[in-house]
Fold this protein.
Amino acid sequence: MEIKNLCKKAFEVKHDVAKLTTNEKNKILMDAAEQLIEDSEAIIAANKVDMKNAVENNMPQGLQDRLLLTVERIEDMAEGVRQIANLDDPIGNVLSMNKRPNGLLIGKKVVPLGVVGVIYEARPNVTSDVFGLCLKTGNCAILKGGKDAINSNIAIVNCLKKALLKNEAPIDAVSIIEDTSREKTYELMKMNQYIDVLIPRGGKGLIKSVVDNSTIPVIETGTGNCHIYVDESADFDKAIAIIENAKTQRIGVCNAAESLVINKKIASEFLPRLYTVLTNKKVKLYVDEEAMACLGDVTSVYEATEEDWGMEYLDYKISVKVVESIEEAIKHINRYNTGHSEAIITENYSRAQKFLDEIDAACVYVNASTRFTDGNEFGFGAEIGISTQKIHARGPMGLEALTSSKYIIYGNGQIR
Amino acid sequence: MEIKNLCKKAFEVKHDVAKLTTNEKNKILMDAAEQLIEDSEAIIAANKVDMKNAVENNMPQGLQDRLLLTVERIEDMAEGVRQIANLDDPIGNVLSMNKRPNGLLIGKKVVPLGVVGVIYEARPNVTSDVFGLCLKTGNCAILKGGKDAINSNIAIVNCLKKALLKNEAPIDAVSIIEDTSREKTYELMKMNQYIDVLIPRGGKGLIKSVVDNSTIPVIETGTGNCHIYVDESADFDKAIAIIENAKTQRIGVCNAAESLVINKKIASEFLPRLYTVLTNKKVKLYVDEEAMACLGDVTSVYEATEEDWGMEYLDYKISVKVVESIEEAIKHINRYNTGHSEAIITENYSRAQKFLDEIDAACVYVNASTRFTDGNEFGFGAEIGISTQKIHARGPMGLEALTSSKYIIYGNGQIR
């Protein structure tokens, strides 16, 4: 009942939120940033409760680090909200307007989606980010954060609501679901009467559960089994720098490289050089027979199983497959990738274009690291997630992904 | 098992279909048009079986008419496919390409969705239309037509496959599900492993069932409870012509008007004039108390119940509500509409703009009939359906709605 009420409240105010002008929305965002800093003490106190539970529950150190809030981190959250205020507001723009033979003038106008539901992991900074992105695009946000961050999230949302209240905007423009149990998540997924789109951010299990159960249109933000194909004409220095960067700069992210595909013509020369660089960074290699033959009897190299080709390690591990041709490389990548980010390293024009044409993924690179798949790196200023599905939005999603359109038609009495 | 195999086959050839050039696709479409005419006899023979069953099953006359195929109608189908060949191919265009500060060149390229599933009613002409639209956009089509048209559909798809075969293109670019039982439809809805998008076309019940059960992303093509609001400053002649057209030009379509909202200031003058025109066309009026008072004791006028406000009659019936103001009109329409097409009749500038801004629907009209909500009328050349949801596509969907995008990134060794 509680979830239904909360969704219904958002639904009831969505047209008022949609009507806010850019100036009004920016004022709320700047006030929210200030309020976050003013309320730092209360937010940190709530976060302490979450951190205490995390320690008691033996949460892994990496996750504890993402959960922790400090004065500096709250300042970063506030700065993130301010940056969103500085972005151009897409709402209300008319993308095209065409005159029909009968005189009708038909325009395509950018409008908010309405009510956006976001399910995410235990990272409290996402709470203010999602609020900022949704409000800037005239949407109401229904947030379901990780249960480990619930106290922090409630404190942050209370703070954001103060900024709405101060500006006489609907406080139901943002809500957090306080009961983080699995049943309530299922209940949320059935609220298609009130919610226009649901964005799950998190692991494979969560995303599959949402896809299987949601009656609300879903934007899948997916896992990344990202490949780098080293072509026979690759510049080895570029290839090694890019692979090192894509694998080791940050291992726990979806745009990290998880699998290498190497052309046979250069495998025996390239792989030993790459091996030295990767093993210096403590990377373990899971390789096929051909690659094994090129590397010889060395440490940190293991036989790959079928499972390795489909694996998103999120760890200091990478799989290596040797292929006869670019055709075999493309076939392998299109079979095992997750539609996220794939790269070719080559100096050959035709094979670069072929790879760009034929690889089926959100982002396809020539001679650059897969780590660039990111809203900020793409110049969107902010990101609500990275879509790995094909409808509505694909790749990093900025403000535009949080909008819909409506046709506005100016007539002077036309009938059919 | 059969459905899974059929979906898998489409999945396996989708990259080959995506690679077809515009010239190759157009050649297939022109050959398919010719083949339809060549195979007219076989298609009409299959259609005779469906028609015989339809008569035996007492199918309503209107539906029988939509099911019937004649030589002329097959010629129209062929002409429809030829027209699709003449449309611009959106696939492969790069919509924007921006240089980032680090030198990366990031482009957004239009690509096919992949495998498109379409569930539709017993109208065999839709079979060739959907094939044409999907092939033109490099997609594979999995068709589930109404069971009453199954023999006609199988004959048409066999004919389309001949055109594919003749051009050495994958014949699995189009498939029809021969078993039209409900269980098979449920099975189809779970094929998210192979199908990229599912488009249900049909009644409320079908669409709700797909939304509730599909694990494939769905584009809802919806019912239309379309309103016309007659403002106090309306030109009565325009208003009456538009209402007559929107209600009676074709009653069984989703863009027909189903409900009138009349400003109180003009109700007593306007309604009697409108009444004469509508009742001449045999339209029954379901009216509120205010409207009843304006009309007096006349035939063909009934008291509206709460149910009438939400009703898509698809019949010679219309509901009528009198309101105090445009604000009340907008509130009423946003509450009861189905997000399809809504119109205001007014000569007042500010209220026209307010209506365009605040009505939440795919298409919002000033001084024109809601009947224009149609891909051809909008200049798209063809239409796969009319979306009433907000993600991916909203309103009439042409070729563009059958595409996705991918980012292509040209680098020269960039790392993060």
In short: Residues 226-372 of chain B form a domain with the Aldehyde Dehydrogenase; Chain A, domain 2 fold (CATH 3.40.309.10). Chain B has two domains: 2-220+389-410, 226-372. Chain B touches chain A through 68 residues (CB under 8 Å). Residues 2-19 of chain B form the longest helix (18 residues).
